[in-house]
Each structure stands twice: as C-alpha cells, then as structure tokens.
Amino acid sequence: MEEMDAAINAASSPAVKIWMNWMLVIFLSSIIFVWRHKTAWAVLVTLLLSLPLAIYIFEITQSVPLIGLAHIGLWLPLAIFLIITEFKSKAAQLKTPYGIYIVLLLITIAISLFFDIRDAVLILFEMT
Fold it and tell me: What's phi and psi for 99, nearest 5 deg?
C-alpha cells in the first residue's frame, strides 16, 4: 500500500490529489445516510470493495493509471444502479439532502469514469 501511495503521489499533480480526496470524502459521506437509505449502503460497500481491488490491480500492473479499472468495474455499475433506483419516479426527492448528495456523487463518478476510461484506452493503445 505504501508503494502504491508513493507512486500515486509521484504521478499526481496537486489538483489530482485534491480530486482524489474529494472522491474519498463524497463516497465516505454515504455513512451519513446508511440508516435511512439502502442505496447509501451500496455506495459504502462499493467504496470498500474498490480500495482493495485498486491495490490488487496496482500490485499486478505497477501502473497508477490502471488503478482506474477498479472504478470502471465497480463505479459504473453503481452509477447505473443509482440512476435506476434514485432517479426513476423520485424527482421530487432530489431536493432533499440525500438527493443532493446522490447528484454530487453521480457527477463525481461520471468525471472519474471519463478519465479512468481515457487512461485505460491510452494504455491499451500503448500496448499495441
């Protein structure tokens, strides 16, 4: 884990480090809502699964950009699940604190997935 942290710190700009901290905060914020919203449990479990998967991917590949594969594999299904369960016929609830949280989380996931997919594609083209 220390080796991965060192590699991430070496490969990341200050802006990326701030972004990674934001992602951790937004995912951990699900703890606030787990007692009232089952979907918040899905967010928390996804975070808890993505961290060891990211470590595993790094251990195998020694590639910081490929850590994003953990996000693609876990966060993309989570985003689809949240869109289906939280947006379908619940538009009025989007103005609640939990609704605002879900919108912020989905925006965060979308931005992260954009860069994770971009990194994966770039690495794939480097390999060919």
Answer: -60, -45
Q: In the block, which residue shows the tokens 């901290």? A: 21
Question: In 3D, which of 9, 53, 47 has the Cα closest to residue 26?
Answer: 47
How many whole angstroms separate alpha carbon 78 and alpha carbon 50? 11
- How far apart (Å, rounded) are the C-alpha atoms in residues 75 and 116? 11
pLDDT band at 125 (very low <50, low <70, confident <90, very high): confident
Relative orientation angle of helices 97-127 and 38-61, to the nearest 10 degrees: 20
Say what the pLDDT of residue 126 is.
82
pLDDT of residue 46: 97
Query: Of 54, 55, 81, which is closest to residue 70 (Cα–Cα)?
Result: 54
Binned at pLDDT 50, 70 and 90, residue 91 comes out as: low
* Count helices and strands in the chain by DSSP H and E runs: 5, 0
* Average pLDDT of span 6-26: 84
